[in-house]
Amino acid sequence: MIRILLGNAAAQIFVACLLGWAMLIPMQPWGAALRKKGASRALLAAHLDWILLALTQGLVAGIHQVFHLHHEDLITAALIVGGWLNPVPYLLRAFGVDAFVFAGRWPQRLAAGIAGASALALTIAWGSISWQLLHASR
User: Fold this and answer.
1) pTM of the model
2) Residues 6-43 pLDDT 10s
3) Within a 13 Å sphere around the CA of 95, how many CA atoms are in the beta-carbon half?
4) How far out from the chain centre does Cα 32 lie?
5) What secondary structure letter does DSSP report for 26?
6) Contact at 8 Å (CB) between 9 and 16?
7) Helix, strand or coil, per DSSP, at residue 50
């Protein structure tokens, strides 16, 4: 669990770094044609989301080292799935798809489904972790 979470967290931070470099291009004088209103905020949200979710995976690796969590395969899978999928709606928003509303055409509905699946995965993982920590402190 620990090595998988830490390795995945490093990969997510690496992707966030690459996205950060890509975000610089439209800000350059020669990249002005790539600027799109609102896109930079959505890309920044995805960038920060990947970094923060990666850091939480590192936190869970530390929690597991101390408390030896049960259901570690489920928690690991849920954190990894949620960690990669949660920023996707922000990326899609940068390209004109409102992934936070389950309506419209199939791309928007698919994007909203991804957002819901990632939120569910993260909620399951953190619910399990929180429950175990509450009971471990007794």
Assistant:
1) 0.88
2) 999 999 999 999 999 988 888 888 877 777 766 888 99
3) 8
4) 28
5) G
6) no
7) helix
Alpha-carbon span 7 to 89, nearest angstrom = 23
DSSP result, 85-101: HTTHHHHHHHTT--TTS
* pLDDT of 54: 98
The whole-angstrom separation of Cα 135 and Cα 16 is 35
Could you give the CA distance from residue 15 to residue 80 in angstroms, rounded to a whole number? Answer: 14
Quote the CA–CA distance of 51 and 49 in Å, as a whole number.
5
Q: CA-CA distances (angstroms) from residue 63 to 5, 59, 69, 82? A: 12, 6, 8, 18
> How is residue 32 annotated by DSSP?
G
Residue 124 structure tokens: 């399951």
Rounded to 10°, the helix 72-85/106-136 angle is 140
- Tokens 């007794």 locate to 138
CA atoms of 39 and 34, how far apart (whole Å): 10
